């Protein structure tokens, strides 16, 4: 596996600067040991507080998999996969074959470590690459999946065109994304940006229009409270990790508490909202 990102126009942009930083593999191994875990024999349930780099954690992944009707042996491409937590979940609990692509090399290296440690290397392939130039042939996947990524991508039409291109006719695109709300412009920091030029939010209507165009038709859509309700319902089947768990997203990003507080404030002030969507590619 190549964990260095192929040079691309996007890779030189400001959004990826936000995710860049020191390598995290050694820190991760240390944190796993502190949590009493063996980095070579991991259980994905133990990784939950660290593994889901988006609002509302693993329950959001579970709810989106339900909305998309994910089937065992589906070929899934997770775009902007972070350290691969959702990909490992979809492989281990839903029986999917997942390719986890991310543009941040240090996240790809962490994804590789955790996937190998969880014994999932046969079902989850890590690829370091750009969502705007996906290194896959047309119609290679049953499902293109993405969570908390579009907010870092300015050219959303190209993003959606790439998602649609790599799914087979009749296949689906599933998203869980942050959109702009009616409450005014974003207050920083948030978990995906420190400043305005790292964040590109569209409204829910704009996202819907993008997903319901070209070869795609929206087949499922949950916005705002409807999305929150679906995720709360999914959460009932999961254990909630204790707040003082030694593993967490602070290992990936500095000042994570301040960023999460910023997220909560923006949600409470209706500056942002959450959308779950599934679009199907026409034959
Ligand atoms: C907030 S994290 C979400 C990670 C993962 N989807 C999850 O939910 O756990 C956003 C991720 O998108 C990745 N990303 C942003 N722009 C990208 C692009 N153009 N191509 C690939 N990955 C990208 C970042 O490197 C980061 O890992």
List the helices and strands and how they pair.
Elements lengths: L13 H6 L5 H10 L13 H4 L5 H12 L6 E5 L5 H10 L2 E6 L2 H13 L6 E5 L12 E7 L8 H11 E14 L23 H8 L4 E8 L1 H11 L20 H13 L3 E10 L2
Parallel strand pairs: 1-2, 1-4, 2-3, 4-5
Antiparallel strand pairs: 5-7, 6-7
Helix pairs in contact: 4-5, 4-9
Bound molecules: S-adenosylmethionine (SAM).
Radius of gyration equals 17 Å
Instruction: State the helicity in percent bands.
Output: 25-40%
- Strand adjacency order, main sheet: 3-2-1-4-5-7-6
N-to-C series of helices and strands: HHHHEHEHEEHEHEHHE
What is the overall silhouette?
A: globular
The poorly predicted ranges are none
Give me the CATH fold name.
Rossmann fold
Would you give an account of this structure?
The chain is α/β, with parallel strands linked by helices and 283 residues long. It has one domain (10-281): 3-Layer(aba) Sandwich (Rossmann fold). 35% of the residues lie in helices and 19% in strands. It contains ten helices and seven strands. The protein has helices at 14-19, 25-34, 48-51, 57-68, 85-94, 105-117, 156-166, 204-211, 225-235, 256-268; strands at 75-79, 97-102, 124-128, 141-147, 167-180, 216-223, 272-281. It has a seven-stranded mixed β-sheet with strand order 3-2-1-4-5-7-6, sandwiched between helices. Strand 2 (97-102), helix 6 (105-117) and strand 3 form a beta-alpha-beta unit. Helix 4 (57-68) packs across helix 5 and helix 4 (57-68) packs across helix 9. The longest helix has 13 residues, at 105-117. The protein is globular, with a radius of gyration of 17 Å. The two termini are 33 Å apart. The relative contact order is 0.18.
């Amino acid at each position: 596996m190549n964990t260095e990102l192929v040079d691309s126009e996007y890779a030189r942009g400001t959004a990826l600067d936000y995710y860049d930083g020191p390598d995290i593999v050694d820190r991760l191994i240390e944190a796993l040991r502190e949590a009493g875990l063996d980095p070579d024999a991991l259980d994905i349930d133990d990784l939950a507080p660290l593994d889901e780099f988006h609002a509302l954690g693993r329950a959001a992944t579970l709810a989106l998999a339900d909305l998309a009707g994910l089937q065992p042996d589906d070929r899934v491409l997770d775009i902007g996969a972070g350290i691969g937590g959702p990909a490992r979940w979809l492989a281990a609990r839903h029986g999917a074959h997942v390719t986890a692509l991310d543009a941040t090399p240090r996240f790809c290296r962490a994804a590789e470590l955790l996937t190998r440690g969880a014994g999932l290397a046969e079902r989850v392939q890590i690829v370091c690459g750009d969502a705007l130039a996906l290194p896959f042939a047309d119609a290679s996947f049953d499902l293109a999946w993405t969570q908390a990524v579009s907010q870092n991508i300015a050219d959303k039409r190209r993003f959606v065109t790439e998602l649609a291109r790599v799914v087979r006719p009749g296949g689906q695109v599933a998203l869980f994304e942050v959109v702009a709300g009616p409450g005014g412009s974003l207050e920083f920091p948030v978990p995906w940006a420190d400043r305005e030029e790292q964040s590109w939010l569209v409204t829910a209507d704009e996202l819907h229009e993008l997903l319901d165009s070209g070869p795609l038709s929206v087949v499922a859509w949950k916005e705002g409270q409807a999305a929150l309700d679906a995720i709360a319902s999914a959460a009932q089947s999961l254990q909630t990790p204790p707040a003082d768990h030694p593993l967490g997203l602070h290992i990936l990003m500095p000042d994570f508490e301040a960023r999460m507080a910023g997220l909560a404030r923006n949600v409470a002030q209706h500056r942002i909202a959450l959308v779950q969507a599934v679009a199907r590619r026409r034959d």
